[in-house]
Here is the input.
Amino acid sequence: MSRDDRSRARRDAPGSFRCCECRLDVSTVAPGTAHRNHCPNCLWSRHVDERPGDRASPCRSGMEPIAIAVRGHGEWVLIHRCRGCDALVANRIAGDDNPLLLVQLAVQPIANPPFPFEVLSGIISVPN
Ligand SMILES: [Zn+2]
Ligand SMILES: [Zn+2]
Here is the structure.
């Protein structure tokens, strides 16, 4: 029985859910978002929605935060990838999400580039 199966058997209290990754009890009420769907501590989510807030997905697998994207107006969104079905979902960040983890995600491609950075100097010309 996996960790996921055990957490699935447990009923979440209304207005909160237990994080599938770090086991934190998380209130669904959060600053800056209508319905929180990910853990502010480790940023993991769970695949419960087909569309935001509908709780219609039968998947219920844990969703790993893999990237940060920035929408127009500078709104940060978290990209989650489902460990069960590989779905990719974008979620607004909440006002109390772990800022250190958010920044770690944002700089990950820079910290671990898939090619040597010297290559970039041939592609990007910086006007001066
Ligand atoms: Zn967590
Ligand atoms: Zn899924």
